Amino acid sequence: MKENVFNRNLLKFIKHSPTPFHAVAQMVEMLDGYGYVRLREGDAWKLEKMGRYYVTRNDSALIAFTAGGLDWPRSGIRMVGAHTDSPCLKVKPRPEMLRHSFLQLGVEVYGGALLNPWFDRDLSLAGRVTVLTAAGTIKNVLCDFGDPVAVIPSLAIHLDREANKDKSVNPQEELPPLLLQMDEDARSDLFFRDILLDRLKRADPTLDAVEVLDFEISLYDTHPPALAGLNRDFIVGARLDNLLSCYTGLAALLASSGKQPALLVCNDHEEVGSASTTGAQGTFLEALLTRILPAPEDRLRALDRSMMVSADAAHGIHPNYTGKYDGNHGPLLNRGPVVKINAGKRYATDSETAAVFRCVAHRLEIPVQDFVMRSDLACGSTIGPLTATRIGVRTVDAGVPIFAMHSIRETAGAHDGYHLFRVIHAFFQTEDLSAPA
Description:
Distance between the termini: 22 Å
CATH superfamily of the largest domain: Zn peptidases
Helix content: 25-40%
CATH architecture of the largest domain: 3-Layer(aba) Sandwich
CATH class of the largest domain: Alpha Beta
GO molecular function, one term: aminopeptidase activity
Radius of gyration: 23 Å
Shape: globular
GO biological process, one term: proteolysis
Number of helices: 11
Number of domains: 2
CATH topology of the largest domain: Aminopeptidase
């Protein structure tokens, strides 16, 4: 795959993945197109040599893998981990707020979001809706309004003269978006669930839903991701952390030969601690490994010969804020993927796993950068340490450097995603991790 094709498909994937549910649906469509067989946790499994499989959980997390020769205790498994969720604003269960003729929605902040960039954006709504059908059954339906249907207007500078000096955001009072203007007396009975049901039926007239029972709906920026810069040096868009890694890992898996057992896990809820059935602290990956390797000795032997790349975004050195970085460990955009290191094990990288990653990249003549947080700043974390702890697999934390992490729009280098794709693709097909070069 050439870089321009990779970037074009990446932008398309991000555009059509406004929520984890949509991201998994996109990945399922890609896997189906490559002949991967869907497994369901409630069914009996029978795996075949050279088989290609995937399984989802809660429609928001996914594991895809190639079985190779089924001799996992001898070959080990090459694993890549990413996460489908991103910081955002989620609609509350009873969100309706009618104030001065404006219908607004109450929202919660999901994850460590930068809040100021959410103001004055063309916002839409997307997520999963659980409905009651005419037959009395419960059904999950994906929902995406698509068009700009909401906005969070800023307060005019005339009413807040200090806004450019010290702007804090009260999420309860200042973040409810405007949805529409209406007559307070005539339309006081309008409910968000009615709006959802109407939108679902307009999108699919054959849908036999009679009631919205519940929903998981988020706001998102409708402006599509794009290549930017005079020389198109940058990718600018929402949810680069961490849909870029999800797409990169999946594209690398689909392009691999399948001879070497390889696995991609895309967890949900990383941005809020990963403590869920679909998060890295949950049982999703562990349950799958136990299922395909039921004998404890075989499973431990396979894990000893395995390794994971925890693929997540890294902090690129921002030219306007260079003092926020360790001078020797500030990655540059478009200078190659980044190995992330932390003495407190906020990242799972050790010298051995970093060496394997560097050797694979070196073989491809792709440079590798390092990131270490300043010693006087707190370090973030990833699914890497959680997965390593949960299943005991050697892990390296690596990814592409970006700006504005956790903003409504982030910036990455236009070449770095493709570089990471090539490294992961080669990693998936590396037979001997002790001699990856």
